[in-house]
Write a structure and sequence with these properties.
It is elongated, with a radius of gyration of 16 Å. The chain has 1 helix and 6 strands; from the N terminus they run αββββββ. It has one domain: GroES chaperonin (10 Kd Chaperonin, Protein Cpn10, Chain O, Roll). It is mainly beta and 102 residues long. A 6-stranded antiparallel sheet has the order 4-5-1-2-3-6, with no helix packed on it. One of its GO terms (cellular component) is mitochondrial matrix. Keywords: Chaperone. InterPro entries: Chaperonin_GroES, Chaperonin_GroES_sf, GroES-like_sf.
């Protein structure tokens, strides 16, 4: 894991996710343009915020995922985050994540 990612701490209930890379070549070796390949709807959790503020009092509500979990993502949404490495990172709220995969 990059040192840059270790310095990123999402705020409140936000979660930083690295999307899985999409294959851009077919089994026969044909290269596909990026526009024709659908986005990958799965990713791995890279960093997790402390959780949403507790409306009943002090502290934060716990987040349902932890670093290293595989999650199912919506097709659209999230905030794209550019880092020095060439991977695709997206910042989502906890409520935007569709499911946790095992």
């Amino acid at each position: 894991m990059s040192n840059i990612i270790k310095k990123v701490i999402p705020m409140l209930d936000r979660i930083l996710i690295q999307r899985f890379e999409v294959k851009t070549t077919t089994a026969g070796g044909i290269l596909l343009p990026e526009e024709s390949v659908p986005k990958e709807m799965q990713g791995v959790v890279v960093a997790v915020g402390p959780g949403a503020r507790n409306p009943a009092g002090a502290g934060h509500l716990s987040v349902g995922v932890k670093e290293g979990d595989r999650v199912l993502l919506p097709k659209y949404g999230g905030t794209k985050v550019d880092m020095d490495d060439k991977r695709e990172y997206v910042l989502f709220r906890e409520s935007d994540i569709l499911a946790k995969l095992e």
